[in-house]
Amino acid sequence: MTTQHDYAPTKTLGPRAAQLFTELYERGRSTFTLSDVEAITGLSTGSARSLVHKAQQRGLVTRLKPGLYNLVPFELGRATEHIDNPYLIARELAGTAVYFLSHATALELHRMTTQPNFTIYTSCTRRVRPQTVGGYDFRFIHINDAQNFGVTKHWVDKERFVMISDMERTIIDGLRHPAYAGGITEIAKGLWMKRDTIQVDRLVDYALRIDVGAVFRRLGFLLEQYKLADADQLETLRAKLTATYQRLDPMMPSEGKFVSRWRLQLNITPEEFDAVRLG
Fold first, then answer.
1. Contact, 52 vs 37, CB < 8 A?
2. What is the DSSP string of 242-262?
3. Which residues are paired to 139 by β-bridges?
4. pLDDT tens for each residue of 138-180
5. Deepest in the core among 28, 83, 98, 220, taking most CB within 10 A?
6. CA–CA distance, 93 with 67 (Å, rounded to integer)
């Protein structure tokens, strides 16, 4: 009598597959592309695709999207589906381009937010379309080479890491694109949560390097609101202001009083900022 158990794919390796997987493990590449398979095995595109397809049938790999795969660790036993860490997948989607995890994703990794985030945000010098891979939503923000600064390593495990914006760069990016970070109040919350470790001089320096008017306005306002900067730091930011007014939070309606000191329309109430401090 046959059982369902008899039909389960067996995790056996042929010599070519063994060569491939050994090399992938050696390189720490649990997520890999068809090009990786060709480079390691020397097979043609068609043969490489056939090899991966057979490995998929045996439960050795999971197909994330066309041309992108994930190794199923042997320690998972008979499991035939496995999605690796989404941050590593983001790194693979960036390819050979400069990248770093940013915005809401960096806020979460730096423990600067209490709000759950279901999209992986990545800044990248290559234009990558939004996509869903392995059940995760990935959003890429295009940057140029000059904007690749304020970046550090985040270790996913003992052997693998991804690049991530540091705390100060995360704040600056959030002020530039609040929609990718949950809004201005989330940025304010992150700033307040890390007020004892964030370097204000670095925040000001990063703002000058990004050189975006809305960032000068929003950063100056928040630093003054929470009494985190000295007069010289605030004046450095004010010196960059033009006569134009901008909304404090571009995601909110254009309403509220105007503050000439920072050329801002305060479309978020002071009580909301106080709540950040009290919470």
1. yes
2. -S--EES-TTS-S-S-EETTT
3. 121
4. 999 999 999 999 999 999 888 889 999 999 999 999 999 999 9
5. 220
6. 11
| CA atoms within a 13 Å half-sphere pointing along the CA-CB vector of 181 | 33
* Cα separations in angstroms, 277 against 104, 141, 190: 20, 30, 10
Any bridge partners for residue 62, and if so which?
70
- pLDDT at residue 261 above 90? yes
Domains and CATH numbers, the chain: 4-84 (1.10.10.10), 87-278 (no CATH)
What is the DSSP-derived secondary structure letter of residue 32?
A: E
pLDDT > 70: percent of the chain? 91
Burial annotation 108-143 (CB, 10 A radius, 16+ → b, else e): bbbebbeeebebbbbbbbeebeeeebbebebbbbeb
Residue 239 φ/ψ, nearest 5 degrees = -65, -20
Cβ distance 180 to 141 under 8 Å?
yes
pLDDT digits (tens, 9 = 90+) for 78-108: 444 445 688 988 998 998 899 999 999 999 9
Q: Is-above-0.85 flag for pTM?
A: no
